[in-house]
Design goal:
This protein has 2 domains: about 180 residues, FAD/NAD(P)-binding domain (3-Layer(bba) Sandwich), CATH 3.50.50; about 100 residues, FAD/NAD(P)-binding domain (3-Layer(bba) Sandwich). Helix 1 runs parallel beside helix 2 and helix 1 runs parallel beside helix 6. Strands 3-2-1-7-18 form a 5-stranded parallel sheet, with helices on both faces. The relative contact order is 0.19. The mean pLDDT is about 95. It is built from 6 helices and 18 strands. It is α/β, with parallel strands linked by helices and about 290 residues long. The chain is globular. It binds flavin-adenine dinucleotide (FAD).
């Protein structure tokens, strides 16, 4: 029996889980944290099967109940790390500290999260501003770095950087931290005005006018988003979307992506179709 991880319980993730569970070939675990975009939709009237408009919340709840009835296991927690091991299996870590290993992964995490509106951030992306600690930690050996974020994901990124960086500070940008801080990491809650540097990140400027030198800025707001997770396991991304082929496969064998995180039409019908296509591809991957 194979083991499949689906990240995200929106239309794409749940749709895939139905096909996978019904195949009888794989145990299916869906890790999900926070509301699907669909939960924000008051009325849906452009989706198949309803005589009257249906609320997004109701559509989601019914879909999840159907998946649970078929044996899909839902874990209501955040996925904060994903790595591929020597046997080409996938090691997943959730915010509650649980680690597990899977044979295949579907990223169905919805559209990429917005980056914080901080002056200088977008201009310095790739020039000291990074979205993936495990990918870029090496470039900041013995350098001072900051992580911008306030949740478990920010803490995880900071802990990834501590073995190599000279110092790691989490900047919560005015938000109360949601974690207890280990000794080796500093935390500063002041509001950030700008990230500054000529050609590369050099410092953070706070709203109170003070400054902190930093060679690297790692963005880790909220949960680990689609492109961050894809980058961690080496799946190519294009801006804010994960690149897949027509079977919803990424360039990494065993890793698939579906729904809004792959771009195109950002609608329920497309997300559901993507999930079905990805599930069928995963079943072929297992056979
Ligand atoms: C206000 C609004 C109205 C809309 N109206 C319509 C409409 O009328 N018709 C229509 O067809 N579409 C509509 N849409 C679009 C539709 O909701 C989306 O296209 C659809 O929900 C995309 O599905 P998805 O499964 O790709 O992603 P999502 O539904 O966004 O689900 C992704 C899930 O992954 C979870 N997740 C993300 N990162 C992690 C992590 N690290 N760990 C664990 N879980 C994670 C998220 O919390 C979320 O639950 C609307 C969207 C909005 C916001």
């Amino acid at each position: 029996m194979k083991k499949t991880l689906i990240i995200g319980a929106g239309p794409a993730g749940i749709s895939a889980s139905l096909y996978l569970a019904r195949s009888g070939k794989t145990e299916v675990v869906v890790v999900t944290n926070g509301a699907s975009a669909l939960a924000k939709a008051d009325k849906i009237e452009n989706y198949f099967g309803f005589a009257e408009p249906v609320s997004g919340k109701e559509l989601l709840e019914n879909s999840r109940k159907n998946a649970e009835r078929l044996g899909v296991c839902f874990l209501d927690t955040e996925l904060i790390d994903l790595q591929v091991n020597m046997e080409m299996r996938f090691e997943a870590l959730t915010a509650d500290g649980t680690k597990d290993t899977y044979d295949a992964v579907l990223i169905a995490t919805g559209s990429a999260r917005k980056t914080p509106k901080i002056e200088g951030l977008s201009a310095l992306e790739g020039k000291g501003v990074s979205y993936c600690a495990i990918c870029d930690a090496f470039f900041y050996r013995n350098k001072d770095v900051v992580v911008i974020g306030s949740g478990e994901y920010a803490l995880h990124e900071a802990l990834t950087l501590t073995p190599t960086a000279a110092s790691v500070t989490i900047l919560t940008n005015g938000v109360k931290p949601e974690f207890s801080l280990p000794e080796q990491i500093h935390c500063d809650t002041r509001k950030i005005k700008a990230i500054s540097g000529s050609g590369r990140v050099e410092k953070i400027i706070f709203e109170d006018g003070s400054e902190q030198a930093a060679a690297g800025v790692f963005i880790a707001i909220g949960t680990a988003g689609s492109t961050e997770l894809a980058r961690k396991i080496g799946a190519p991304v294009d801006g804010k979307v994960i690149i897949t082929d027509e079977n919803k496969a990424t360039a990494v064998p065993g890793v698939y992506a579906a729904g809004d995180c792959t771009g195109g039409l950002l609608q329920v019908s497309k997300a559901v179709a993507d999930g079905a296509i990805a599930a069928m591809s995963m079943l072929r991957f297992f056979s």
